[in-house]
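User: what does the whole thing look like in 3D?
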Amino acid sequence: MNCKDAEREMLLAETGELSRRKLDELEAHISACAACSGRRQGVRQIVAAARHALPGGAPSPAVIARIRAAAADRPACGILRFRQPLFQALAYAAALALLAGGWFLLAPNRPPPEAPIHDVRALLHMVSDTVPPALEARDHTHREQELRALAQELLIMEGLAEESWTELEEPLPTSDAEPAPTALRWRSTGACPLS
Amino acid sequence: MEGTDRELVDRYRGGQVEALEALVARYRRMLFGFIFNMVGGADDADDIFQETWFRVIRKIGGYREENFGGWLVRIARNIAIDRIRRRKPNLSLDAEPEAGRSLAEVIPGRDPGPRRRVEASDTGRSIARAVAGLPIEQKEVFLMRVEADLSFKEIARAQGVSINTALARMQYALAKLRPLLKTEYEGLTTRGP
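Assistant: Here's the predicted 3D structure for the full assembly of 388 residues, as structure tokens:
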């Protein structure tokens, strides 16, 4: 180790950022080099003198009071906050997918894998008492339409899409006892299906 | 309120405002000293100290750092640099001072006033003046090391440079301060191990 390296490494040694091996090498060099030994003392002396001499003090009480007020006004929380609505929507989508996947794996009477609409309906059951009537008693021929409607609802709920009043191609089938519910009717209630 | 920085952060996130107050109290002197010596005045230091904590409050929900003090100093440093740039937009912080005048000399300093920590000795006052006169990057490194007690890894991260660059800046700063302790320093270097 030369004296140039020694000066850099003595700075790292002061902050505990030097490996054991390098530290041993440094100590061996300093014990044999009067100039580096004095340099290390000098560095320590400058740092100690500066710590003592640099002006400082404390912030004014008014500043502390304003920080305290801000801390009380905006209590932090551990819930993730997203600056971009897209990130928030993606996080919600990921959470929904996880929930759906978990339910699918754990539910005792899980539906056959060819019926994904059941998963979505069950998911809505889990988070809300209100399940859109259009989702009840359905054959599988309209699954794609329903999934599209649900996706649209999620986007609207997240503010990522305008409410659309486009009529679906055909009314969704229902039992004889009910009025013909359509995806349009469900959406037109304006109520959040998850609330 | 007792606890590690991490515990206090978690408690504040959980709704305990006192936990943040404890963090403010814990870092008050260190942070204020760093800011004060960066910008050279109590009024600016008050503003920057306040803004630093406001940002902490806004960002603490996403806090994932290992070292709260290092995070705090990084935030304060960025605000201070912005303030210095706005104050003198024609000055480049990357450029060496012209005609032997440092940025700290070009920017008028302010009287520390009644909050001055100590009545420094002549040597101490000389050191304080010399630190104020260091080029901004060297002054930052020196203050982050001396006032904030950050490691060179943290200093390098705050400045966005390599550890070697941070070390070199510290060496330059020490080289400028060393003559102020010339008598004592020469005595030390001529003495054998």
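In plain terms: Chain B touches chain A through 66 residues (CB under 8 Å). The mean pLDDT of chain B is 80.
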